Structure formats: C-alpha cells, structure tokens
Amino acid sequence: MSTIEFSGWIFLTSTLAGLLGALTGLGGGVVIVPALTLLFHIDIHYAIGASLVSVIATSSGAASAYVREGFSNIRIGMFLEVATTLGALLGAYLTAKVSTHAIGIIFGVVLLYSAYASLRKRPDTKGDATPDALALRLKMYGTYPNAGGETQYTAQKVPAGFSLMFAAGTLSGLLGIGSGAVKVLAMDQVMRLPFKVSTTTSNFMIGVTAAASAGIYLSRGYISPGLAMPVMLGVLGGSLVGSRLLVSAPVRTLRLVFAVVIVALGIEMIYNSMAGKL
Amino acid sequence: MAWDDKRMEIAIGNMLRVGVLIAATVVIAGGALYIYRVHGPHPDYTTFHGEANQFRTIPEILKLATTGNSEAIIQIGLLLLIATPIARVVLAATGFLLEKDRLYFAVSLTVLVVLLYSLLQGH
After folding, report:
1. Is A61 helix (H, G, I), strand (E, B) or coil?
2. Which residues, at least 6 apart from B66, have a Cβ–Cβ distance to it below 8 Å?
3. Which chain B residues in 65-104 lie under 8 Å from chain A, judged by CB atoms?
4. Are A195 and A127 in contact (CB under 8 A)?
5. What is the CA radius of gyration of chain B?
6. SS3 for A151?
7. What is the pLDDT of residue A103?
8. Radius of gyration (C-alpha) of chain A in whole angstroms
9. Tens digit of pLDDT for each residue in B40-89?
10. Is the complex ipTM higher than 0.90?
11. Alpha-carbon torsion angle A121, A125, A130, A135, nearest 10
C-alpha cells in the first residue's frame, strides 16, 4: 500500500471512530486503538500514541460547546485533575514496563466495561445526600440550569472519588484513551454529582489528563507524525460532525449498536493478546 | 463585568477551540506536504522501534521544521495541540488569582507542574 492510500484508509477509519465516539459519548480513543491494532496490525505503542493526540483534540474541540450549556464545574474538574494527571504520569511510565499482551488484555477489559457503562440506566435523583464537610471546604459544589431554575449540588465521598480519578488517569496514560467512562463513574456514582455535570466536567478533564502523558509518549517515540496526522484529523472531524448530529440521531439505537461493536472488539483484543497475536 | 467563574469558563472554552483550530491547521499543512512528498510504500508500524530521535524532543523538532521537513511540521502541530490544555490550566490559574481564590490557584499550579514535568522530562 502506498503512503497516500494508507493515510487515506487510516483517515476514514478514524473519522468513523470519531463519529461513533461522539454519538455514543464514549470518545474516539476507545475504538481507534483496537481498529488500528486489529485491522491494520499497527503496534499498540504507535496506536496509543496517535490515539492520545486525537483524544486531546476532541476534548478541547468540544469544550466551548459544553461551557455555554453551563453544566461543567471548573473547581471540581481542576481538583480532580491533580489525581488524573499524576495517574497519567504513572500510566505513561507503565507502558514501557508492562508487556504488550498485558496492555491488550487491560484494554479489552476497559472496552467491555465501557460498553456496559454506556447502556446502564441512570436515575438522576440524588437529593437525599448530606453535605460533605471536605467537599464544602474544597468548594466542590455548584448549581446547574434546570426546567424550574437552578438546582444545587455538592460532591460526596471526595477521597474515594479522588482515588478512582487516579485510576482513571493511569488507564488513560497506559492505554492512550480519555477513559471518560471511568471519570464519569467517579463523579456520577461515587461523588454523587448530577449526570450532566459529570459528563461535561469529564470532557473538560480528558484533555488535561491526556496532555500529562503526551510529553512522555513524545520522548519515548510513540507519537509518529505519519500515523498521528490522519488519526488526529479523522477523529476530530468525525467527532465534530457527530456532536452536530447528536440532536437528531436515534441515540438509544446507536448506543446499542456501538456497544455490540465494542464488546466484539474487547473480546478480540483479549483473545489476540492471549494468543500472542497483538 | 466582574471576573467570575462563568466568564472564566467561557474564556477557557474559546481558547481551547482556537488552540485546536491552530493545531489542526498546522497538522493539515504538514500532512499535505507529507502526502505530496513521500512516495512509495507506507512506513512499517507493525513492529515498534520508536520514532526517530529528531521527532522526539522540542528543540530537535523545531530545528527540523525550519528546514521545511513535513513530518516535523506535523509534530509542531501536535505540540501546539498538547500545549492547548496546558494553556487552559494557566488561564484557570490566572482566573483564580484574580478571584483571590488562593486554594484553587495552588491546585491549578500543582496540575501545571505535573504537565510541565511530563513535557520536559525527556530533555
């Protein structure tokens, strides 16, 4: 395959990954790494390098739209970024220590969890919580726009949320993904923040978390310009189109279809890693 | 209008979008040049040997980009992309300082130190 042909195929695949990632809310990284390794037989280190760069692009590109909605919480995001960036440093260091097979298996498990998380029901009633002293001292509260005006919220279980965020950062640095599913889990399920606040703040945090491992990736030679170029442009373009389509798309059906695809990719990642084919 | 959280978030959102736009433009320019110049079979990515040293550190990338090397220009675009969330943290730190929120000014600086460490540790 010539360079132009190869770049074209990578670009098309990345565009599709970005489109699906935006439509389902899972992000492009979680599908582009398996696509690059399973379809194009690209070494996982180059794949996670290119994916990480595209994750920064989509997170930052979508941020301005989220800000206008008024759901994201800048203080909660910044405080938790201390955990995610430190975790990302650890994860990026681990990529050189952990075997390719282990990375593949961990990736497969994260894919399976992401598929499960995207289909889970989300009851958004969290009014019975008692104020958390630590959260108040750290000003981890806020309001968000609602049909009847502004609704108030305060974070719960800050240490547990912080620890889970560290784990999310480690996964992000190890796998070159945004690990949005784990970030949302920490804020939505552990810290009991409203779902919309969790997802928009998570999107904000993904770019900063990814930037923390990007420097290490670059100095290790994981970021290859010839590969990262079509991946980053494709995922970014696809996700921008996807977020526009989101209003009119049948999200529930798409989630289901995408979940099936992700489960298949997850199983194949685990199988190939165990068979030593990755 | 006083400096407040809402205003800070809007400024940050716009800054991020502009950063991505600039980075993508540079990557497209470098990419077009790359496609135009590089012929023959595509590079082999199936086994990991690491990108060449001249594409791994900021000074080397800058040096090579001035010679018009297409891959170095792509790397410059990717560096601008990596710099965008870092600039976001700088902007937030400034905002917290203006709000006289010392706690969150310190939190932002902590995040900034981690980010700069990652970017500069290879040098």
Report:
1. helix
2. none
3. 70-72, 74-75, 78-79, 81-82, 84-86, 88-89, 92, 101, 103-104
4. no
5. 18
6. strand
7. 93
8. 18
9. 788 889 888 888 888 999 999 999 999 999 999 999 999 999 999 999 99
10. yes
11. 60
Sign (positive or negative) of CA dihedral A227, B86, B91, B111: positive
Chain B residue nearest residue A78, CA to CA: B108
Query: Two tokens at A206?
Result: 């993904």
The confidence score (pLDDT) of residue A64 equals: 67
Token pair for A277: 């084919």
Residue whose token pair is 């540079």: B26
Tokens of A188: 């939505």
Cα nearest neighbour of B52 on chain A? A221
Q: What's the pLDDT score for residue A243?
A: 80
| Structure tokens given for B42 | 């595509």
Tell me the per-residue pLDDT of A16-67, one tens digit each, with 9 for 90 and over.
999 888 877 777 888 899 999 999 999 999 999 999 999 999 988 777 677 7
Residue A165, token pair as written in the block: 């965020």
pLDDT score for A114: 87
User: pTM (2 decimals)?
Assistant: 0.92
Smallest CA-to-CA distance from B88 within A95, A64, A135 is with A64
Which residues of chain B from 28 to 47 reach within 8 Å of chain A, CB to CB?
Answer: 28, 30-31, 34-35, 38-43, 45-47
Q: What six digits make up the tokens of B78? A: 């990717």
